[in-house]
Amino acid sequence: MFKTKISKVLGVVLTAAMVLSMFTVATPVAAANQAWSKIALPGSGATGGYVVSTPGTRVDNIGILEWNADKTAVYATAQYDGSAAIFKSTDAGRTWKMLTIPTVTGGIIYDFVASSVNANELYFTDGREIFTSKDGGATWNNLSNVFTWAVANTWTTPPVSGTNLIVTLDIGYAGANKYVFAGTAQFGTVGTGNGVFMCQETAFGMPWSDLAIDTQRPAGSAWNSGCSVWDVVVDPTDFAVKQGVIAVATYNDGVHPVQTVITAKYFGNQWNQTATCDDTQVLVNNTTAITSVVHAELWLPSDFNSSLTSGKFQAWLALQTTGSQGDVYLWYGSANGLTTPKTIDLNVSGLSSQTEITDIDGVGGIADAKLIIGGYSNAAVSTPKVWYSSDRLTFSGNSKRPTGAASTWGLPVATVTVLAMGDYNTSGKALAGTAGYDCGVSYTADFGKTWNTISLMRQAIVSVENIAGSLFVVTNDWAQQSVWRIVNGVTERVFSSTLIGGPFNQLDVQVSPAGDAVFIADIGIGGTATIWRSLDNGQTFAAQVSNISTAGGSIINSWLVSNANTILVGGTNNVYQTSTNGVLWFARACLVGTVTSFAVSTDGSVLVAAGSLGKISKSTDGGVTWSTASAAAPTVSAVSLVTFQNGSNSVVYLTGNSGGVFKYDFAATTPAWSALGATAPVQAFDNDAASAVVNGVGIFSGIASGGNVLYVLDGNVAADPAATPPVVADGLSRFTMVGTTSYAGSVATPGTAVGTKLIGIAAPGANMLYGIFGAELYVYTDKMAVPVANVQITKITTTSLTVTWDALNVDNSNIEVMYYVYITDAATGAKVAYMTTSAFTSDGTTVGTSFKINDLDVDTVYQVSVWAVDPVMSFVGTASVSTQPDRPDYTVNLMPTNGASNVPVNPVFAWDAVSTAVSYDLVLSTDPTFADATKVLATKNLTTNYWAYDGTLSNSASYYWRVRVNTANSTSEWFPAVFTTVKADAAPVEVNNPPDITLEVPQAETPAYIWLIVAVGAVLTIAVIVLIVRTRRVV
């Protein structure tokens, strides 16, 4: 129980309490695709978070659960390996770390309290010392010792260490001052020296004061013969103002009979002061004094008011006694001004029942609080029980209790501690801690109606026995079994064989195909076979009203849940069948020997049973009638396992402890068994073959795209490759099947443990397999039961091509997917290309997503196949393609030839005919790239190897043309060419003789300057002649 200032427990009977604001765990089940991944089942010890125990080191007697001040850590007291221990959790109680603590004298922690102010400040007591930590439990120191202080300061009646045990603590704050309150008691009696003591921790020397609960009271009311203080609580709402302290005590005043009261003191005044709060006697059935208290817990609401007339003076007291006097009592003040509060026995189990309450908690105020209590009935003292109240006056008991038994500390009774979460009054979430055999911390989300165990469990996980659905797991301890539910990574134990009694029960679990019902079966070894059903995903289970013994059965050899009401149980040459969830059972003849396995078709319309004779039989009416048994399989297994092919209601597969994998089709004209193979896993992945299964222990057919996929778990212990047939190591055989052809591969076993069981959850592109290997559980998600997608052929030439495809995404960076590619001639089926280049590994596979293939025939159609083969085989992706035909070439028959000039402007185009051509494409353009459509002059598809241009080209211009061949298979590359047209010829000139023209020229005078020029010229001429004559020499 968590209070505003204190959460406390009486350690002798180990009550416990805890607050948890939200219960979520970020530990999802990680499924490693294409590889086995270990599912982390609840762990033990320091490395496993102390969720479960180990066989040699058990958790026991959970004591106290307490939040720190800011609710970032939870602390728990318990017994671990026989010694007192304190655990710390930083994930809301899912996992724990064990703290190193001082020596606990007597081996019992009586109380543990966390400061409401400092998140790292803690206190606990072993009854003799009080220890405190200021660093979250990493280190501890002693508070001053009240017993030593009392003697040293000569108290009149000092408490005696070891006799007057400190059983309750609380912390009060008044400004900067901090006060530690302690109450002492003696079990089975009252005595002197007990009382309420206060330590001012913040004062020098940590002095103690005796609050004199026995003597500091009105005259004539002293408790002269002593008392025992079972609980002390500081007023949670106004301690700093009123210094209110409330205590629950049993006393003897030497005058009145021994009685139990709630007593208080305020403002430092005496106890039982009329002006503030008189003592209130607690009476069983409101009439009889209570004398045998061993534990008390007082719960105060959030708006508690110490004024008796406020209307909010109410509190609830939980009492545990040894004299059938325990219960929950309401303590309340009167609004009419009376100073004496009263109590009412609420009789949580009714007037006719006797109940002992070991803890109480709640959330809310006077008007809206919801309460939760734990304890046991005196009619069944070893059975823990929890009750809930929404009106604070009436209580409802749990329908599925937390596991646990009688405490091995103190009284041999089932102590239960409860803790309401912060939103308990709306969410119904709370925790309960138990003691004794199969104890643990349990969780509820429905106000305590049903409980699942979550941590600090006494049970261990020695082995994993069975699995079902998504996901229920059966684990085994030496003497008991547990059923766990794993949802979104959160693991809770939903069922324990201790809930059904018996020293040992062999449990199995199944989930209906629709997922609307979960069944648990005690298969009946050493007892009576019983089946329980849950309609709320395993939260609660109800036993069937009858069992197979009513129809002559005894042991469940095998069983199948067909739907929420129909169950089949395997007998010998018969099937026990119910369609009413066990109201009526019938024995139905099914002559296959001892029925060792069942299967149901995907659509639920057909059932099949397999037996020890290696035969199978089917039923189409829910198991009422069964067909004539088939012939025995080629290999007969005493334990035969059968499954339907996913999506089929006629094809089944069989394996068993004698090995082999076989297929049978009820719809075939002549149904017969066919073996999927008995040879070792193949290496040539394109061959029809199968994996050797020596000891089939699990079989499952998943969803596949492109064919069918089958998984078979081999439980073979040893490998012998030299045997005939070879014996391979234990592993998972995986078959991909297309039509009648099967391809096999093998997935290695995780670790060295032998597989014992396999189940599957079919999903498109992600079949999920769960396997049990030794004491461990693994999951394998197969994302490769799909075809390789988007197989494309590019870069096609006359003799080569490049294959590309999309990588298979398995979402696992540690896995390198490898592929296999080959090409067959479409006409003949002959394989013409394999992996021979260096781009491929030695076994002919590639890790890339493309591959170039050379040396192919010209103009030939090929079928290209691609599939992944490692780590497992996918389904094939295909594409059909033809190599190109030879293109036209530069020959004498090409016209116009490439680079030709003086080509006529009305050209004829021609080329060599190709014998396989069905047409030719021709393009004429003024663009050398042929890219500009506006420059294309002609685009033709021709059936002849020539064509005359039907227009006129320009002279002295360059033109570009190209031609290609179309065959029935493909199209060749373009053959391009360029030519220049002829120049234009000179145009002929025509001369026309014009008529005669007569010109009349008028007589004109010669200008004077003309005559001047003539004269100058004459003079110069004469001068030149003279010079020549004079300069001539006579020889």
What's the helix and strand layout?
Elements: E1 37-38, H1 45-48, E2 59-60, E3 65-67, E4 74-80, E5 83-89, E6 97-98, E7 111-114, E8 122-125, E9 130-133, E10 141-142, H2 146-152, E11 165-174, E12 177-185, E13 196-200, E14 208-210, E15 227-234, H3 239-242, E16 245-251, E17 259-265, E18 280-281, E19 283-284, E20 288-289, E21 293-299, E22 314-321, E23 327-332, E24 342-345, E25 355-363, E26 370-377, E27 380-389, E28 396-397, E29 416-420, H4 424-427, E30 430-434, E31 441-444, E32 452-455, E33 463-468, E34 472-476, E35 481-487, E36 490-496, E37 507-511, E38 518-522, E39 530-534, E40 542-543, E41 559-561, E42 567-570, E43 572-578, E44 586-600, E45 607-611, E46 616-619, E47 640-644, E48 651-656, E49 661-665, E50 674-677, E51 696-702, E52 708-714, E53 731-738, E54 741-748, E55 755-761, E56 767-773, E57 776-782, E58 792-794, E59 801-804, E60 818-825, E61 831-833, E62 850-853, E63 861-870, E64 877-882, E65 900-903, E66 908-910, E67 917-925, E68 936-942, E69 946-948, E70 958-967, E71 975-981, H5 1008-1031
Domain Fibronectin type-III: 787-886
Transmembrane segments: 1008-1029
Protein name: Fibronectin type III domain-containing protein
Describe this structure in words.
By secondary structure, this protein is mostly beta strands. The chain has five domains: 48-460, Prolyl oligopeptidase, N-terminal domain (Methylamine Dehydrogenase, Chain H, 7 Propeller); 461-539; 540-547 and 565-782, YVTN repeat-like/Quinoprotein amine dehydrogenase (Methylamine Dehydrogenase, Chain H), CATH 2.130.10.10; 792-882, Immunoglobulin-like (Sandwich), CATH 2.60.40.10; 900-981, Immunoglobulin-like, CATH 2.60.40.10. 4% of the residues lie in helices and 38% in strands. The chain has five helices and 71 strands. The strands form 18 sheets. A six-stranded antiparallel sheet has the order 41-42-43-44-45-46, with no helix packed on it. Strands 2, 3, 4, 5 and 6 form a five-stranded antiparallel sheet that branches. A five-stranded mixed sheet has the order 65-71-70-67-68, with no helix packed on it. β47 and β48 (651-656) form a beta hairpin. The chain starts with 36 loop residues before the first strand and ends with a helix. Residues 2-30, 678-690 and 836-843 have low confidence and may be disordered.
